[in-house]
Amino acid sequence: MNDHDFLQRVFARGNSYWLTRFVILRLISFVYAIAFLVAARQLVPLIGEHGLTPANHFLEAMQAQLGSRMAGLLQLPTLFWLAISDNFLSILSWSGFALSLVVLAGYANAIILAILWMMYMSIVHVGQIWYGYGWEIQLLETGFLSIFLCPLLDGRPFPKCRPPLLVIWLFRWLGFRIMIGAGLIKMRGDSCWRDLTCLYYHYETQPIPNPLSRYLHFAPHWFHQLETAWNHFVELIVPWFSFGPRTARHIAGVLLVSFQIILIISGNLSFLNYVTIIPFLACFDDTFLCRILPKSLVRRAEKAAQESEPSRINNSIAIALSILIAYLSIAPVLNLVSGRQLMNYSYDPLDLVNTYGAFGTVGRERDEIVFEGTQDAFITGDTKWQEYEFKAKPGDPNRRPAIIAPYQCRIDWQIWFAAMASPAEYPWTLHFVWKLLHNDPSTLSLLAYNPFPNAPPRYIRARLYRYQFAPIGDRAWWKRERIGEWLPALSADDAELRRLLGAMNWLD
Fold it and tell me: Would you give the DSSP letter of residue 283?
């Protein structure tokens, strides 16, 4: 009998998800590390004491609305009810990043994963619009399930405690809801998903394209139609097989994971696709993973499987968790089968079981807000304006699109949304202009560079441009056409600007 046959027999006995647990925990720790790194570098300028939308103002408003701090804590659980400051934001973020690296290095138990989950939930719940994306609550739900994959204290990569089979099934249930929700929101939403034309536009109009997006955009229409049909197949048909027999599950897992990898290389969707891969890993058992993982890792898993002992406590906890998830799944399931499906919505304060979806509508044209400043004392037809460049979103037509995912530049994403609306719907943009008028270092850290390093500009304005990918072969990456004004020229002395900022308590 060769080594492969022996390992197959070992892993085929009983609960054979030792390698599965190992891979799931390593990937979620990687996603946590990225998420906490983003928070460490961006929370203070976004929601700090002098940020664009200060979290202390947000918590004060919540407390006033709900009547007490305790009511706020129950409705919106976060450690920041205890204290909120720039130092605490930074300490919690960097601590989360460091703890994520501990898990990534191989040491994980239920206590560590519970701390990571609680810390990130605390950030999401005060993050306001900057943390209003579906992958935030998806990471929280995935992170919560991961707590129950581990022993309470034993943090070794392959502890003697068997991976709970019921928790593996709960991961599959999460992956199923993610994909079915994404598929149904498309079929019920934009008509271009039904006539297979959405990908004519998506690569150009998605939030943050990457260099490959340009080449995919100019692919033949038949290719885009085939892609869209494949999207529907993977999102609406394949997930059902994740509950099937071993071979069906393995095939489904390969299709679901490879689909997310394709999405990763075609755009910059933050860590969405990385965290989405995690529940699909539960489709694989050790008989599959032992074929592709290093032999040294497989041997350690084999030894743990041979020495493992059943645990009544762990089994009881897994049963209780399954009952809780089943109960909390009622509302998301009813949402899925309803004619008015909500997308990326949480039904409980802890975000334990949520409903998901992505790109229910696809824009046909890409509009971008370009912020410009000048140091001229008066605005004339000869005024020289200089553009502010962001780290990821399109700006200079000659600049190559960024490759930034799984990292996320959160202000770039919000400006993509703002370009589809008016300043009245995104009042934080006025605070952003005020910060630029004062060369605020914290705000400027969110940008690629400051065109006014020596003295702040006298005026800031925002213009709206329509961007299109330049044809393949052009030296420029984009071509653009000005279509109007988004914000008029504003100065620090503008009375109306000061009045609006004062009303929002942003006049700092």
Answer: G
Closest CA to 31 of 143, 122, 115, 128: 143
Single-letter amino acid, residue 193: W
Residue 140, classified by CB atoms within 10 Å of its CB into exposed (0-12), middle (13-18) or buried (19+), is: buried
Q: Where are the alpha helices (DSSP H) in 105-189?
A: 110-124, 134-147, 165-188
> How far is Cα 26 from Cα 18, in angstroms, rounded to an integer?
13
For the stretch 230-263, pLDDT in tens is: 999 999 999 999 999 999 999 999 999 999 999 9
Distance in angstroms (rounded) separating the CA atoms of residues 175 and 173: 5
**CA 392, CA 402: separation in Å to the nearest integer?**
5
Q: How far apart are CA 424 and CA 145, in angstroms?
A: 40
User: Which pair of structure tokens corresponds to residue 231?
Assistant: 């999207």
The type of residue at 437 is L
Give CB contacts under 8 A, 24+ apart, made by 491-494.
491/437, 491/458, 491/459, 491/460, 492/434, 492/437, 492/438
Q: Looking at residue 205, what is its pLDDT? A: 98
Place of tokens 């898990």: 103
Chain Cα centroid distance, residue 292: 28
Asked if residues 179 and 256 have their Cβ atoms less than 8 Å apart, the reply is yes
What is the structure's pLDDT at 271? 97
Q: Whole-model pTM?
A: 0.95
CA 78 to chain centre: 19
Element (H, E) at 386: strand 386-387
* Residue 23: closest CA among 103, 98, 118, 139: 103
Number of residues assigned to the chain? 508
pLDDT of residue 508: 72
The angle subtended at Cα 496 by Cα 501 and Cα 128, nearest 5°, is: 25
Q: How many CB atoms lie within 10 A of CB 291?
A: 12
CA 237 to chain centroid, in Å, comes to 24
Place of tokens 């999460």: 174
Amino acid present at 242 = S
Q: Reduced to 3 states, what is the DSSP secondary structure of residue 81?
A: helix
Count of alpha carbons within 13 Å of 178, Cβ hemisphere only? 26
Torsions phi, psi of 472, nearest 5?
-55, 130
Alpha carbon 97 to its chain centroid, in Å, reads 16
For residues 170 and 145, the answer to whether their CB atoms sit within 8 Å is: yes
CA distance 494 to 508: 15
